[in-house]
Write a structure and sequence with these properties.
Order of helices and strands: EHEHHEHHEH
CATH architecture: 3-Layer(aba) Sandwich
Shape: globular
CATH topology: Rossmann fold
Largest sheet: 4 strands, parallel
Bound molecules: 4-nitrophenyl phosphate
Strand content: 5-15%
Helix content: 40-55%
CATH superfamily: Response regulator
Length: about 160
């Protein structure tokens, strides 16, 4: 049986873990599946705020994602210190997420696992993934545009290093 520990593990993190990070997880898992790499790479997502723990992704995000072919299935959870031990890479959606993760990283070595999602953007000229929670449908669509590009480039980067 394949050992989970032998896989490369990516954790996507936003504030609530009901909009951006579960969408990033769903898109990234889709790319991993399409490339036949499910035995090598796995993903999860979590939020810095634990108030939505146990909830499914926001209905508006599920609808927008499904329209593009991504069925989002996730149960929200809060980031925990074990995540810095268990994951190889931790991807923050915005600057506040990045700062908060840096703050709770148990060690300097752990903090080196944290990256901004925007660092994987190539065509989009924006330095973060905006929180769509208080936006209309166009906000969710923009987030998916950003995440599709970021997740593809992230996947390519990881694949090249495996
Ligand atoms: P997310 O969006 O961080 O992309 O999951 C949010 C969802 C809920 C809240 C904030 C952001 N909230 O404060 O309830």
């Amino acid at each position: 049986m394949e050992e989970v520990s032998s896989k490369y593990k990516v954790l996507f993190v936003c504030l609530g873990n009901i909009c951006r990070s579960p969408a990033a997880q769903g898109i990234f898992e889709h790319i991993v599946r399409e490339n036949g790499m499910t035995d090598r790479i796995i993903a999860d997502s979590a939020g810095l705020y634990g108030g939505h723990a146990g909830q499914h992704p926001d209905r508006r995000m599920r609808t927008a994602a499904l329209y593009r072919g991504y069925g989002l299935k996730h149960s929200a959870r809060q980031v925990r210190s074990y995540d810095f031990r268990d994951f190889d890479l931790i991807i923050a959606m915005d600057d506040q997420n990045y700062e908060d993760l840096m703050h709770i990283a148990p060690s300097v070595e752990d903090s080196r696992k944290i990256r901004r999602m925007a660092s994987y953007f190539t065509t989009h000229k924006i330095s973060y993934v905006p929180d769509p929670y208080y936006m209309g449908a166009e906000g969710f669509s923009l987030v998916l545009d950003l995440l599709e590009e970021g997740c593809q480039n992230l996947f390519d980067t990881i694949k090249a290093e495996l």
